[in-house]
Design goal:
CATH topology: Rossmann fold
Number of strands: 6
Number of helices: 9
CATH class: Alpha Beta
CATH architecture: 3-Layer(aba) Sandwich
Order of helices and strands: EHHHEHEHHHEHHEE
Shape: globular
Radius of gyration: 16 Å
CATH superfamily: Phosphoglycerate mutase-like
Length: 196
């Protein structure tokens, strides 16, 4: 079990989110709504942490630009210097490999058997040249083991689902299907998670 509280922000909305495209490792920027969501998430995080903790804890972001922009907007909304955070490749989104850039209906049309397999075994299924949620959870574990105190991280929907299973007490098959909202804050503590 994680010994410290983890404050999680999913990056704000992108145009690919609106279109239902699998982003994975593609570097897609925030849209206007995503920038607004990042500001709202920052305000909420400040209420959760309080000003003193917000100035003292580490802030960590996925290197992808949608996460970095969310972090910088959120930090500004918290009254903190926007660029004062660390980049962590281990919290990057899982990759969908050859499926990146496609919508789910496009995946189903191009690879119906693989799409059906993923629907039935979403936690362990690996897209062509991609990652499964199981693989992502394994990638995240050393980062979790390295945490030495309360931390705020900006990352991605797949990472949130993997954390729900590894530190949030949710069964992996349920975590792989969980909704992950933009503009809200997910708090992991004491073997559970709560949306704020």
């Amino acid at each position: 079990m994680l010994q410290h509280r983890l404050i999680f922000l999913r990056h704000g909305e992108t145009d690919w989110n609106v279109e239902g495209r699998l982003q994975g490792g593609q570097d897609i920027p925030l849209n206007a709504k995503g920038r607004w969501q990042a500001e709202q998430a920052g305000r909420t995080a400040l209420k959760i942490l309080g000003p003193a903790a917000a100035r003292a804890i580490p802030f960590v972001s996925s290197p992808l630009s949608r996460a970095r922009a969310t972090m910088e907007i959120a930090r500004a909304a918290m009254g903190l210097a926007p660029p004062d955070y660390a980049l962590e490749p281990r919290v990057s989104e899982l990759t969908f490999g050859e499926w990146e850039g496609l919508t789910w209906p496009e995946v189903q049309a191009r690879a119906p058997q693989a799409a059906a397999w993923r629907e039935g075994e979403k936690w362990t299924f690996t897209p062509p040249r991609g990652e499964s949620y199981f693989m992502l959870a394994q990638r995240l574990q050393p980062w979790l083991d390295d945490l030495r105190g309360e931390t705020l991280v900006v990352s991605h929907g797949g990472v949130a689902r993997a954390l729900m299973a590894t530190i949030g007490g949710l069964a992996p098959e349920r975590a792989a299907l969980a909704d992950v909202w933009q503009g809200r804050v997910l708090v992991f503590a004491r073997g559970r998670f709560d949306w704020i």
